[in-house]
Specification:
This protein is an alpha/beta fold. The protein is 47% helix and 14% strand.
């Protein structure tokens, strides 16, 4: 398995740290792209950009976390070649890989001023395993649609 890239702002920091321990135990190679310490004043676009650029360069996958997962998802999708998703369940995580060949999974860390509930650790683990282990189908219709997305990036 290729190395995956992790990133989180303060709102996703604690969940990211739990996921790192789990990924180590599962022997999933990863790189933590920050924040490397809790900083309530950091900004999610910084980590989304770092992870997204590394994912594109390495043709790997990434996991991003912020309070709602929406911010990191929006920011990551500004980088050419990224198809970041914020699925609400395991089925959507699977389909995002199988149909859209998504390369970044965005998860809700929940620690924000709006008190967005954090994704539970068991559900996050299941979504991550599904995301990492589901191959792209390569079906003609899915390739055609991804190529249309690529044309939008020009």
């Amino acid at each position: 398995m290729k190395k995956i890239y992790l990133g989180a702002d303060h709102a996703g920091f604690h969940l990211k740290e739990k996921l790192k321990r789990w990924l180590e135990a599962e022997r999933v190679p990863f790189e933590d792209c920050g924040d490397l310490k809790y900083d309530k004043n950091d900004d999610y676009p910084d980590y989304a950009a770092i992870v997204a650029k590394k994912v594109v360069k390495s043709k790997s996958k990434g996991i991003l976390l912020c309070g709602s997962a929406e911010g990191v998802c929006i920011a990551a999708n500004k980088i050419k070649g990224i198809r970041a998703v914020n699925p609400y369940g395991v089925i959507q995580a699977e389909f995002s890989r199988r149909h859209e060949d998504a390369n970044i999974l965005c998860l809700a860390g929940g620690e924000s001023r709006v008190r967005q509930p954090a994704l539970s650790l068991p559900k996050a683990k299941t979504m991550i395993l599904t995301f990492l282990n589901t191959p792209f189908s390569g079906a003609v219709r899915h390739v055609r649609r991804i190529n249309k997305i690529k044309r939008l990036e020009r």
